Amino acid sequence: MVRNPLAFLLLLILAPAALPAQSAGLSAPQAAPPAVFGYSDFTSESRIEEKFLAVPDAQLAGRRLKILTAEPHLAATPEDRKTAEYVAQSFRDAGLDTEIVPYRVLLNQPKAVRVEAFDAAGKLLMTGPTREHVEGDPYQDDPRVVMPFNGSSGSGDVTGEAVYANYGRLEDFDQLAAQHIDVHGKIVICRYGANFRGVKVYLAEQRGAAGVLLYSDPQDDGYFKGDAYPNGPWRPEAGVQRGSVGYIFKYPGDPETPGVASTLDLPDSARTSPDGNQPRIVSIPLSYHDAAPILQALKGPGVPHGWQGALPFRYHLGGVADQVAVKVHLVSQQDYQRRIVWDVIGKIPGSEYPEEWVITGNHRDAWVYGAVDPSSGTAAMLESVHGIGALLRQGWRPRRTLVFASWDAEEEGLVGSTEWVEEHAKILDRAVAYFNTDVAVSGPDFTASAVPSLKQFIREVTRSVPSPAGGTVYDQWKNSRSESNEHRTSNAPSAAEEVHVGDLGSGSDFTPFFQHVGVPAADIGSEGPYGVYHSAFDNFAWFTQNADPKFVYLQEMARVLGLEALRMADADVLPYDYVTYARAIESYIEAAKRRAMDDGLNSLDFAPAQAAAARFDAAAQKAHSRQITATGDLGKLNLALRETESALLSPAGLPNRPWYRHTIFAPGEFTGYAAVVIPSVNEAIDARDSNRAAQQLAVLAEALNRAAHTLDSAP
Ligand SMILES: [Zn+2]
Questions:
Q1: 507 CA distance to ligand 1 middle (Å)
Q2: Taking the chain, what is the end-to-end CA distance rounded to the nearest angstrom?
Q3: Catalytic site residues?
Q4: Any idea what DSSP says for residue 670?
Q5: Which residue, 187, 566, 608, 633, has fewest beta-carbon neighbours within 10 Å?
């Protein structure tokens, strides 16, 4: 899975005023010898980092990528098992205590997927899905390439009239309703983009649709953007985006075991119905080759502004009673079984604080070959591990425990990571960081998202890693960011301010760590034009042609990932920046208050939450000076710093989705990937529910008071 580029825009809208982190006074002058936050003297650690940085190798990373992408390796297949063994062997070679950890989880694989469309006269318009094919791709014809399907789709055989619903966002369905187009019993056709695909199906199901077709419009990742594969990086006519439509914004992981680990010995009686965690209706993904004849034949009103895609005809909505134009027949037979998946976990015990884990993770399963998503991340992580292994051989030991994780069945809904987190929830109370990568390399532009307390940490790490384009990763990040400034909203920091680190929504394995058990987390990647997401064309040939021909960005990501882990594992004082965190929360509350006023919820009292945020801010400033001075019982100081993040969890969880417990960040119920800040408050305001908003403001104030108190308790 991956964050969607359009979701990034949403995130800028939903997460106002990401504060520039220099407010915390943490950033060291760039050229000076490193004064690194969290270390009273960085001299010896900087030598360790230098030794580490010398090891990750571009050619080796490329070789690893080639091995990982040699065969399609969908979760729970024999080829997936082979990649688990390869990763485990690489971990062992580097000296990690390694195990392959199985879980038994409910997953579907397709037995039959068919789409046919007819015009009003009963003439056949199309049948599909058409096999993915372009001129000359060496990987596409492997019989193990799974037919296009949606993870977590319902099974069924349904026929209905087609209605076009743009991106299938809440506002798109509202727009259809405003035009008196009822989607009840119909087949809704949505284009990919703007939100998580599971949200499209969720909304269609809520409104009574009989089925959903999801297609990739060339405007969003095809020829409208640039040349299509094999001539360029964008989606070809036959390319299909597979993907899960599970309701991960309610509960990710095995849909039968919310909050419980699906270990092999978990009895079936402990499993519950997956209803509510995944759709019952059928959904099928299509290429635009297959979607075009349906869209072209639709009648009814022309589409509203912003709904027209890049196919060469005028789009219409369909769905008008006396103008039935297209009937669509969907057949989807999904083979749901409890299947075995395999996480690979490698550990290096910490010499001083063994119970404080620093976890680095990336998923391994792919819809097909997954060169970018996720194998670029795995290749990079294995080179990080290679570098750490070289340190181990020289007698070095981390002060905290290092854990490296290769997750399975992420594509089906963050399954491998969620089950592992649920199994280890207790010890993860002490884990100090989770560093994720997923779509690690699709091009040269570094990006990051993180909990606010780690945003400055990520920037500092990137100042220590060279970029293949010259200077440091940080320098290039700053450059690429000012080039893309024109696309930014007024909320974006100006060019003089810090590089932007996004907020964590969902769509990858940081979710269970951060939003379920409160482990401070970050997610990094290196991006470029990428139109083959979740298709057979995300393969080694596409990668070497378009993303990173010399594998130097794999090497860069290996260095950044490894350095995140090393620097966190060896720090004297945990380098969390709670001042930036507190300021961000204050701005979120301020923005929510303005929205409540705009929406006429005037009676809401924001004062207690604002006072609690101010208390948290004051505690953060005091803690910051203690972090700088770094004297006394550092173990106790670190414990308080770590427990502050957990204090922001609500024991009862968010309304309607108790598995999500973080009071400050969640994936939006109607965006799926993009973060919603102070989610329970903002979603109550969206719903114009002032009782719930008042209740959730109280929960937020309580969490902030708890966090302030925890931080103040530091010695
Ligand atoms: Zn992925």
A1: 8
A2: 42
A3: 410
A4: T
A5: 633
